[in-house]
Design goal:
The protein is an alpha+beta fold. The chain has four helices and five strands. The chain has a domain at 3-80: S16 Ribosomal Protein, Chain: A (2-Layer Sandwich). Strands 4-3-2-1-5 form a five-stranded mixed sheet.
Length: 147
């Protein structure tokens, strides 16, 4: 029989209250348990003394017998120094873009860089080249008016 130290939910709707229980891993979450070893009230502030109440000696006993805490219970126990914090698994690649999308993004970046360089070089050439003065059109217009 594999034992778990886990949370059993109690309290009203939208007002959770949890009991830390030692139970057979096959029993339901709020079902049969072997022993109650503490309570957890998540609605209280983190620094409140009644947020987490545990029986340290009983938890140590059950862990020595082979009971395994769930991830959430292990995180709670790590805050008071009874267990190590659970390892956070590395993120899978499912949230990353696929290879073809990465290739398209790279091509788009290169095209944007090339366009920016072309615009910068065009501006530089325009600034360097002396502005050609257009011939004065007023003079021939005056000659036509006189003649």
């Amino acid at each position: 029989m594999s034992l778990k130290i886990r949370l059993s939910r109690g309290g009203a709707k939208k007002a959770p209250f949890y009991r830390l229980v030692v139970a057979d891993s096959r029993s339901p979450r709020d079902g049969r348990f072997i022993e109650r070893v503490g309570t957890h009230d998540p609605r209280l502030p983190h620094d409140h003394k009644d947020r987490l109440i545990i029986k340290e000696d009983r938890i140590k006993h059950w862990m020595s017998v082979g009971a395994k805490p769930t991830d959430r219970v292990q995180r709670l126990l790590s805050k008071i120094g009874l267990a190590e914090a659970p390892a956070i698994p590395t993120q899978t690649k499912k949230d990353k873009p696929r290879a073809k999308t990465l290739e398209r993004m790279k091509e788009a970046e290169e095209a944007a860089k090339a366009a920016a360089e072309a615009a910068a070089s065009a501006e530089a050439e325009a600034a360097e080249a002396p502005a050609e003065e257009a011939p004065a059109e007023e003079a021939p217009a005056e000659e036509k008016a006189e003649g």
